[in-house]
Structures are given as C-alpha cells and as structure tokens.
C-alpha cells in the first residue's frame, strides 16, 4: 500500500496537472441504467447498447437542443452540486462468464489524495480550467470516443484509457496522473485487477458557433497538450477554450477475479457494445443553472465542496443518491443475464 506521504509526493509531480490547480471534482450517482441515447438515437427505445446515466432527472428519450431546458424540467440531480442538472452517460462494462452469461460490473466512488467521493453507482465528473475558460452554453452537447471502434491504435491513450487497480480500496491511490504510465486503451484482462479505472477526457476547444453538429464532435477539438491538465492552446478553427471535462469511473471487478469463471477464449470484460476499450465513449448534455459554471471557473471553485462565490452549494450523498428515474426501455440489467442487452429485451439467466 502507498502511504499518504508517498501519494503527496507523487501528486507533486503533476505541477501543471489536476492536483496543482483548482478544479471541480464531484460525485454523480446512478440516475438510471437504460437502453436509450437521446444524443445518438433520439426517440428510440432499446437502442443498440446499454448506458448508465447520471445527472438531472429530466433525462428523456428526446432532448432537443435549447428547446429542451434541463434546468427547468429537472427537479433533482444525482450529482453533488444541485446547480448541475446536466446529463452525463457512458457505456456499461460487463463480465462474460465461461457459460456464456453476462453480469453488469458495478461501480464505486473514487478516493485518492483529493478525497473520497461517495457514489451509488455512477461516475466522478471533473471540470478542469486552464487559464481563461468559457463555460458551455445552454443547448451544448458533445460526444467523446467512438462506440464502433475496434482498433486501439485509433484512440489516443491521453484521452481515453484504463488502469488496473490492484487494491480493493479505491482510497489507496495507484499510479500517477490519469492516462499516463502503464494505462492502456484496452480494458485490462487480468485476474489480479480488483478494480478497473476508466478515464474519458473530452475536447476542450470549441468553434464558438455550433452547440452541436451531426456527428456531435466537429464543433469541438482537442488543443495542445495532453492528459488531465485543463488543456493547452486551441487551434484557430476552434479558438474558444472550454473547461476540460473528464469522466472517471471505477469498475469494481473484485467478484470476478476467479479465473475459473473466465471464458476459455476472448475477453472477460467488455463494454455493452460487446467491444473492448477502443470503443469506450462518453456523452454530455450541458444543463448548469444560469452562469454558475462560468462563475465556478472564474472564482477558482475547487473539488467537491460548496463555493459561495459562484453560488455553488453542496448536497450530501443521501440526497443525490435518492435522485433516480425509471427505465424508459424496461428490462433487467442486474444479476446474470442470458445475453448482452442488445436487440431483444434482456432476459435473466
């Protein structure tokens, strides 16, 4: 185990990284696990793959940009800042048993030197500024990653990565900055992993005009620099610097470490597209109240705590954990399933 003094020294190496600057880093518990995707498949129930969604409870099958006002329609959020009614979602990780059945891998909050985050499922969200940043506008949305990609070489490890966590306690930080060192684009397939950390870093440069584009990507771009540093200079085509948005997920694979359960061929851990880490992706729909995110960036609001200067308040875990919605594409997603939830409604094994 690492001592806290060792951890402090390790994070001191990130002089220009996430530990050396103000940033919002906060917990979001699971709102719902559902086969819907209003960004890529608006209006469709039983979309091609399963997602886990966090944020405001106005999440719906169809959310037209600007017209669908998340702030006005939501009555709660599963995130720790009640001013954040945005929605964030990712694919779900599954374990494949050698008998052919599948089990959704549970998630836990992430600890480490910056403090424990308490999640009931869900993920951790980061907004990382670097210099003067312009907050997202109402109606803004974007996608990071490619749900159909099967080639690790087509993914920048600095933006999407996985880390094998050999401790059962997420509070024992393992490794350095996100998406560095031995982190991989591929999902680690090792029984020694007790948890697998997934990191998704979004583009931080915007064209300043379009709130969205048909591919949900062209209006944004990655600028100079790499990793979770807030991002460097932006290209002339996308000159507006945004807060760097990062998702961090801790997949608890402890209950699947028995090699006797593993398939005799192929990966044990896959995402809900039945693909590996190269297909990892994240979706984002902005929904902060008023100018609270801009003020949070300008006032240097930090981590998972109230920031009166920006009007940010903090709600405790028992409040945001209680913000849930029913599936809009009803099917079992917990326990052992006969097949991956793709196509037909999922059936218990």
UniProtKB/TrEMBL annotation:
Signal as UniProt keyword: yes
Span of the signal peptide: 1-20
Presence of the UniProt keyword Signal in the record: yes
Domain DUF1996: 37-288
InterPro entries: DUF1996
UniProt keyword list: Signal
Protein's name according to its UniProt entry: DUF1996 domain-containing protein
Species name: Podospora bellae-mahoneyi
């Amino acid at each position: 185990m690492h001592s806290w003094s060792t951890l402090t020294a390790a994070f001191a190496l990130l002089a220009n990284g996430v530990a050396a600057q103000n940033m919002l880093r906060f917990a979001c518990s699971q709102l719902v696990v559902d086969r819907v995707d209003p960004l890529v498949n608006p209006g469709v129930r039983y979309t091609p793959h399963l997602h886990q969604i966090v944020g405001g409870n106005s999440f719906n099958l169809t959310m037209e940009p600007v017209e669908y006002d998340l702030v006005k329609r939501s009555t709660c959020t599963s995130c720790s800042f009640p001013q954040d009614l945005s929605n964030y979602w990712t694919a779900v990780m599954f374990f494949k048993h050698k008998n052919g059945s599948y089990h959704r891998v549970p998630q836990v909050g992430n600890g480490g030197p910056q403090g424990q985050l308490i999640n009931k499922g869900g993920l951790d969200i980061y907004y990382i500024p670097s210099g003067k940043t312009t907050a997202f506008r109402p109606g803004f949305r974007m996608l990071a990653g490619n749900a159909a990609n099967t080639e690790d070489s087509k993914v920048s490890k600095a933006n999407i990565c996985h880390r094998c966590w050999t401790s059962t306690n997420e509070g024992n930080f393992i490794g350095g900055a996100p998406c560095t060192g031995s982190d991989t684009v591929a999902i680690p397939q090792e029984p020694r992993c007790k948890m697998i950390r997934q990191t998704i870093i979004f583009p931080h440069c915007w064209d300043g005009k379009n709130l969205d584009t048909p591919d949900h990507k062209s209006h944004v771009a990655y600028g100079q620099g790499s990793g979770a540093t807030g991002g460097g200079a932006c290209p002339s085509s996308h000159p507006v610097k945004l807060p760097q948005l990062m998702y961090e997920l801790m997949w608890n694979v402890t209950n699947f470490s028995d090699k006797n359960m593993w398939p005799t061929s192929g990966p044990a851990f896959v995402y809900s597209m039945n693909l590996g880490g190269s297909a990892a992706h994240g979706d984002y729909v902005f929904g902060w109240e008023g100018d609270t995110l801009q003020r949070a960036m300008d006032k240097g609001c930090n981590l998972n705590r109230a920031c009166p200067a920006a009007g940010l308040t903090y709600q405790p875990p028992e409040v945001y954990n209680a913000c849930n919605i029913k599936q809009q594409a009803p099917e079992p997603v917990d326990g052992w399933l006969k097949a991956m939830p793709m196509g037909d409604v999922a059936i218990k094994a």
